[in-house]
Design goal:
alpha+beta; six-stranded antiparallel barrel; 4 helices; 8 strands; 22% helix; globular
Amino acid sequence: MTPNTPAPTPAPTPVTWADFHAAEPGFAATAERRFRLYRHQVLATLRKDGSPRVSGLEADFRFGEMLLGMMPRSRKALDLFRDPRFAIQANPGPDAEMADGDVRVAGRAIEVTDAALLARFIEEATPPEPFHLFRVDLTEVVHTGMDGEELVVRSWTPGRGLRTVRRGNEGPVG
């Protein structure tokens, strides 16, 4: 390394759902409850050319992890093998009310290869086999909801913690 070459950036420490839950138990419970309202969620991955791909997906919470299961060699799985960055949005539900708010999670999807964990998952979740299973390393969790007439955005990131922003009807723009 030359004197002008910056030192390599260390890989970020993985942050599991259990880590998030330990840091913000109430916020984690709210997010998980929102994901559990409906079976199917919306996953965004990156295609080979960098453009986004949106797919349906089931998210599962077990063993202190947020887990993403998918069919073998599905486009979304191939996207994640190539570039593990993703975002997933909880299903907004059947109407426009979203009384429980909107929840989004972003991070990196890491393939589960541990045979014992896969066996436990198969025993408890009984997924159709074969399948790919990814665990989530969190980079952000966001909940957007209403409090009366105010829009309330709560977001959590590792290292920064939980932040809340409230936006009311401040009047016309411009």
